[in-house]
Specification:
single chain; six-stranded antiparallel β-sheet; 18% helix; seven-stranded antiparallel β-sheet; alpha+beta
Length: 245
């Protein structure tokens, strides 16, 4: 008798077993280094308090950490740049910038990044609103899935920028009105800067404000000013660096 014929299904299974899984498309967008967070803006306002429940030192023990958030009790701003924690507080009517590894925060967003890809900021994306709208395109251009959170840097100069440093008076309940009233606003002219930001479309009320997809802190390269970015106009030649590894 002749050999029994294999069914088409059996043949397909055998072929699949031999060839293995379909290879991943190298052109497919990949996730950026993981963006993590602790605390949430909406929870702090619900509790009407922002105690420093998150200690920085354990996080700073890890290599290549980038992070930002407010300081404990909304008494200043924090930016961690490659493991160095820069803080800004209002003292004697002026903003004082320092490095502090023992600071604590009520809210923190961070990522560990070892590689960044540079993209020139186009002329029509130099203002903050336009920059925010263009940023996902920049991420996709370097192969990052812009639908997922990612970290970015801005390096170059601003033509102008508006920052704030929050300084809630001791014992004041945290409300939106009290928070806004406690801000010290800083207006910058043309100056070189470094800025750190995080982008997400689903973090509103968590670590971005309700009308933003980005949270950005900016520090002048001379180190005299650091604050939360409310607005900016970047100078020609500014570069955005997207976290890729």
């Amino acid at each position: 008798m002749g050999r029994p014929k294999r069914s088409l299904l059996t043949l397909l299974i055998a072929v699949a077993a031999c060839t293995g899984p379909t290879p991943l498309d190298p052109r497919a967008p990949r996730p950026a280094p993981k963006v993590e967070h602790a605390g949430a803006l909406s929870e702090l306002f619900d509790k009407r308090a922002a105690p420093g429940t998150i200690a920085l030192r354990p996080l700073l023990a890890k290599p290549h950490v980038y992070a930002l958030g407010p300081l404990a009790d909304m008494t200043g701003e924090l930016m961690v740049w490659d493991g160095t924690a820069f803080t800004s507080r209002v003292a004697g009517g002026r903003v004082v910038v320092a490095t502090e590894s023992d600071a604590s925060v009520p809210l923190l967003v961070w990522s560990r990044v070892t590689k960044w890809r540079e993209v020139a900021v186009p002329e029509d994306a130099c203002e903050l609103a336009a920059f925010e709208a263009w940023l996902p395109e920049a991420a996709r251009g370097v192969g990052i899935d812009a639908a997922q959170p990612f970290a970015f840097q801005i390096v170059g100069s601003v033509q102008s920028a508006t920052l704030h440093v929050v300084a809630l008076p001791p014992g004041t309940p945290l409300t939106h009105e009290a928070h806004d009233a406690s801000k010290t606003t800083l207006e910058l002219g043309a100056t070189p800067v470094q800025a750190l930001g995080f982008h997400a479309t689903d973090a509103k009320g968590v670590w971005t404000h309700h009308d933003r997809n980005i949270h950005v802190h900016l520090r002048t390269l001379f180190g005299s000013t650091l604050g939360h970015v409310d607005d900016f106009t970047l100078a020609p030649g500014a570069i955005v660096r997207i976290a890729t590894r």
